[in-house]
Amino acid sequence: MSAVTIEHLSKIYPTSNSLLKYLLGKIDNTGFQALTDISFSVKEGEFFGLLGPNGAGKSTLISILAGLSRPTTGTASILGFDVQKDYKQARRSLGVVPQEIVYDPFFTVRETLRNQSGYFGLRHNDDWIDEILSHLGLTEKADVNMRELSGGMKRRVLVAQALVHRPPVIILDEPTAGVDVDLRRNLWDFISHLNQKGHTIILTTHYLEEAQDLCERLAFIKKGQLMEIDGTENILKKYQTDTIEDVFVRIMQEEQAHEYA
Ligand SMILES: Nc1ncnc2c1ncn2[C@@H]1O[C@H](COP(=O)(O)OP(=O)(O)OP(=O)(O)O)[C@@H](O)[C@H]1O
């Protein structure tokens, strides 16, 4: 079974019409097309990279997978669970590390992780919480209030939060943005360890070297369209280069999507 299946997914964000436009009868119904007919799947146990420039549609795709945004057309499923019809099972199968740092300033790190466990109906989860804290270098911060943490530390907590319910599929949306070298290493060691234990990892990052080193397969998205998808080694061969950065630059200059099917 595939870890993630995406079929003919499109997303059009409705244009926000001002009251003035409404009163003048000039309502814009066209909307903004953020994703266009995207189809691909990610195998169980894969380390998969989703690459694209700012505004390409990566976070939109992730928010659809997390059930936070509705696709305009098409379907998506996590381990066979439709992200809308089987929302609960799909969400339980998925851990998402969001790009934006959102947190509740009234809780400590441990309380934040306990709350997140409760959200999934898990109690007595402290052994696993301690293990995650240790892997992410957060043990000493366990009883510190969230608002007292640095930006990089808060990001570590976001990663921990995504893992509390031991999800088989983990999506990381730019987890290393603004994070020091130490944590980057820590984080990749931990994520690679989870991948070796069978977790499926989907990663978006603007650090293309990291994507090249870590991901077995890569998808490139540009302006909401899937431009290329293949094994990292195959892509390097196809483009006759040894860096994914080079491939990225060339794909982003292309007008048309490749025949990847
Ligand atoms: N809620 C929204 N309403 C309208 N347009 C949106 C909304 N969210 C995103 N967009 C637009 O959809 C497009 C895709 O955005 P998205 O955040 O998915 O890109 P991204 O690939 O994740 O970019 P980045 O690398 O900067 O995070 C952008 O043009 C963005 O402005």
TrEMBL record:
> Highest taxon of the source?
Bacteria
> Any idea which GO molecular function terms this record carries?
ATP binding; ATP hydrolysis activity
Bilayer-crossing regions: none
Sorted UniProt keywords? ATP-binding, Cell membrane, Membrane, Nodulation, Nucleotide-binding, Transport
Is the keyword Transport in the record? Answer: yes
Please state every residue range assigned to the domain named ABC transporter: 4-248
InterPro entries registered for this protein in UniProt: AAA+_ATPase, ABC_transporter-like_ATP-bd, ABC_transporter-like_CS, ABC_transporter_ATP-binding, P-loop_NTPase
Question: What family does this chain come from, according to its entry?
Answer: Belongs to the ABC transporter superfamily.
Q: What is this protein called?
A: ABC transporter ATP-binding protein
Source organism of this protein record: Pelistega ratti
